Amino acid sequence: MIPNIAKQNAAIAALRYIDDGMIVGLGTGSTSAHFVRALGEQIAQGLKIKGVPTSEATRALAEQVGVPLIEISQVSRIDVDVDG
Fold first, then answer.
1. What is the pTM of this model?
2. Taking the chain, what is the end-to-end CA distance rounded to the nearest angstrom?
3. Is the Cα dihedral 4, 48, 69, 74 positive or negative?
4. Which DSSP string corresponds to 14-56?
5. Which helix or strand (DSSP H or E) is residue 82 part of?
6. Residue 69: burial class (beta carbons within 10 Å; 0-12, 13-18, 19+)
7. Smallest Cα–Cα separation from 7: which of 27, 23, 29?
8. pLDDT in tens, 12-53
């Protein structure tokens, strides 16, 4: 099993691939949860993206940390997806 710090580091590293205006797939699992929390921090600092959650748990976490969400049926493509 990957230690928690490695999962956190992977999630933070994934933020380098996120730019303003992107549609971002938000996966499920512990690494994805770290990513969603870190993404929420970036959004609070001005990053403008829309997230597409893959589960109700991810949806709830994204809403909690302020990630604006969009339904998969509303997009024609996802720019990047982060999943564990």
1. 0.93
2. 12
3. negative
4. HGGG--TT-EEEE--SHHHHHHHHHHHHHHHTT---EEEESSH
5. strand 80-82
6. middle
7. 29
8. 999 999 999 999 999 999 999 999 999 999 999 999 999 999
CA distances from 63 to 25, 52, 69 (A): 14, 11, 8
Tokens of 19: 């730019």
Which amino acid, residue 61?
A: L
Fill in the amino acid letter for 37: R
CA angle 18, 40, 48 (to 5 degrees): 50
Measured from the Cβ of residue 56, the count of other Cβ atoms closer than 10 Å reads 9
Residue 44, both tokens: 């609070």
